[in-house]
Amino acid sequence: MNASFQINDPRAAIEADRAHVWHHMVQHKPFESADPRIMVEGRGMKLWDITGKEHLDAVSGGVWTVNVGYGRERIADAVRDQLVRLNYFAGSAGSIPGAHFAQALIAKMPGLSRVYYANSGSEANEKAFKMVRQIAHKHHGGRKSKILYRDRDYHGTTLACLSAGGQKERNAQYGPFAPDFVEVPHCLEYRAFEQGHGDLSGADYGRAAADAIEAVILREGPDTVGALCLEPVTAGGGVITPPEGYWPRVQEICRKYDILLHIDEVVCGIGRTGTWFGYQHYGVEPDFVTMAKGVASGYAAISCCVTTEAVFEMFKDESDPLGHFRDISTFGGCTSGPAAALENMAIIEEEGLLENTSRMGTRLMGNLHALAERHAVIGDVRGKGLFCGAELVSDRDARTPADEKRVQAVVADCMAQGVIIGASNRSVPGYNNTLCFSPALIATADDIDRITDAVDGALGRVFG
């Protein structure tokens, strides 16, 4: 571990954490007898915890965020310089880094033109939801207020975002939820038989999965539906890549019924899948694109809700004193976010990280398929770029999901080996059985092989 990150009294830090910090997504009862994990330093794809143990991070900060890796001094320097110059002013005014990053971002997103800044993925999605609701009032007599979301997709942690959340265990105990959020079926081809589509595959299933969205629209009434919100690749719900033909049909349906298409790129955005945005693999033209995590690789808090000019124009009306988008995100006015995002984007371009993501993603998928040949517990392998999943099953023929505790035991075994992987957990009842891999875009062939070697050993020990 770098000496500059050593601390004089690790035990004092651990006890202070145990006594006062409320960790995210963690049951704290075990900390009465076990120490909480504290991370201290990161360099490239490696992390060191407070005990000095080294880890290879295959999940980019635990939640798919640190796209360009740890220890990027040029990003830290850009943030420091900007904070000294001007750290903050409310988003009712602009800033130099905010203007430049918006311009650079839009250059990567043909067909879109406006960037609304906030500070988290949940906030970015809330902005889009509010825009849809305001458009319904201003232009549709209040009728097109319903927002469709997909089973297994996740859009954030606020009550409105949970209202649009397709992960029942994430939502449990937090209702009642906001009205007029309506679920549509998932598009996981591996589980098509559970939807009554067991005889369909490829483009036939893709069209059927999209047609299921149209069926919901017709049931609800097209004149009541304002937007459809989808992840380009479902993330925490099982790393679900869309089937062939799905996205073109979804676009067709949205245009047919004058429904705004909102694509949530909080996980997939800024290179994760080998293109700047996940939707760009599929030829669709969204009305909203939301993003966060990889926008600045975790070096500063920033999120964006990006819209078309047509959406933006619907809020330009001086005759209505309430006609503009009356929203504010306090920390959307922080200049550190766009300053970090500019350097983050420059690094991706200069180091050819989109190309590396495609190459290493191909290697990761190949390695996972090879593991499936050796371990019958792997029922399905899917992914795009450096965002991959392996669904574990106890019976490959019946596709019976593996027990969640054993899936988590694989994660724990890898951690003991010094490799941090992820898994779907506490999200979809009965289907928290997918191992998740999202290493930084800087990953090398050796990194990929070390990750899958760890999984190979863990599967052997946990499942025999």
From TrEMBL:
Pfam families: Aminotran_3
Family annotation (InterPro entries): Aminotrans_3 (IPR005814), Aminotrans_3_PPA_site (IPR049704), PyrdxlP-dep_Trfase (IPR015424), PyrdxlP-dep_Trfase_major (IPR015421), PyrdxlP-dep_Trfase_small (IPR015422)
Keywords: Aminotransferase, Pyridoxal phosphate, Transferase
EC number: 2.6.1.77
EC top class, as a word: transferase
GO terms assigned for molecular function: pyridoxal phosphate binding; taurine-pyruvate aminotransferase activity
Cofactor(s) the protein needs: pyridoxal 5'-phosphate
Top-level lineage group: Bacteria
Family as reported in the entry's similarity comment: Belongs to the class-III pyridoxal-phosphate-dependent aminotransferase family.
Name this polypeptide is given: Aminotransferase
